[in-house]
Amino acid sequence: MSSIIVAILVFGLIVLIHELGHFIFAKMNGIAVVEFSVGMGPRLLHIKKGETTYSIKLFPLGGSCMMLGEDEENPDDRAFQNKSIPARMSVIAAGPVFNFILAFLLSLVLVGISGYDTTYIKEVTEGSPAYEAGMRSGDKLLKINGENVSMYQEYILYKLMKPDEKMNQVEFSRTDPQTGNQEIQTVTVTPQYSEESKKYLIGILIAPENKKAANAGELIKHGYMEMEYDVKLTVKSLGMLFTGKASVNDLSGPVGIVVMIDDSVKAGLTVSAVAALMNVISMCILLSANLGVMNLLPIPALDGGRLLFLIIEAIRGKRMDPEKEGLVNMISMAALMALMIFVVFNDINRFI
């Protein structure tokens, strides 16, 4: 039960921040907001202040910032459709951007308390391709084939997404023990095939080493990297879905997310309450980054689709037919709801 409450709070925070982005920029651009709500379905609580009704609804799985003249013609000067294209684009883009800002701020908290894991090379097998290329234990791995792997999570993600890719070019840093100066080197290696692991290896063992941010600059740097990692994870997961390496059966909906949050809380509590809180914050960062990326997809009914319509309007020099645009958005929303229902039932079947 406690995990369900935590999940509701997480969902509520992420949706609130997203809709708050739309709300703030709507007000900044002189657009009338009819209703600002967290949740979907029937209203549980509501209060009207000025022109806006603020609502909390029954199902904590969404939210909305309903603006005057958002989907229909309205002669009022404060109607959404009567504002300039840049003004409307800023309002639409603000929701995903606020999710990225939330993910970044939470990443600062996570890194500030828990630190960050680096990719130090614990061991280099003597005579291996890496050893012959000049790599030694104590070096810090930075890039593999041009892709950043300076965080341990990035290294694991690289291995997960590209298990069969050969490490032909490796960038690493080495610290001079006497001066403390760092030297960055890039070497070319020729991986050797291992019959034991059935993979091409270069002969290094990576061990994560947890470090604390030494100053504000380092905290901001690694906080941004933490947020960036979750964005990359979302984008690469979508790429796997579109290329057929993953299927819709691998998607998780609200039920799956509640289960994951529950598992994170339980795993953290075996260590301490702080560890459980850090796990929840980590999940919140991932979900907020995920929502930001997903909403920027150029799909009608999502923020990305609405931005696409505005770009088309800017190119054409006139609005698309509101009825046709509304019909496309309605069909897209129906398809998204059908997908959500499928994912929910898939979650239930998977976990029961």
Describe this structure in words.
- With 352 residues, the chain is an alpha+beta fold.
- The protein has two domains: 87-115 and 216-351, no CATH class; 117-211, Roll (Pdz3 Domain).
- The chain has helices at 2-28, 85-114, 129-132, 152-161, 216-242, 254-269, 273-295, 303-316, 322-351; strands at residues 33-49, 52-67, 116-124, 140-144, 147-148, 169-175, 182-188, 192-194, 199-201, 204-211.
- α2 runs antiparallel to α7 (273-295) and α5 crosses α7 (273-295).
- The longest helix has 30 residues, at 85-114.
- The model has no long low-confidence stretch (mean pLDDT 85).
Please outline the major beta sheet.
4 strands, antiparallel
Category from helices, strands and their pairing: alpha+beta
Number of helical segments? Answer: 9
Radius of gyration, in Å, reads 24 Å
Query: What is the share of helical residues?
Result: 40-55%
Q: Which residues form runs of ≥5 with pLDDT under 50?
A: none
> Mean pLDDT, rounded to whole units?
85
Whole-Å distance between the termini? Answer: 17 Å
Trace the largest sheet across and list its strands.
Answer: 5-4-6-7
Q: In the residues, how many domains can be counted?
A: 2
Q: Care to count the β-strands?
A: 10
Element order: H for helix, E for strand: HEEHEHEEHEEEEEHHHHH
Strand share of the residues? 15-25%
Shape descriptor reads elongated
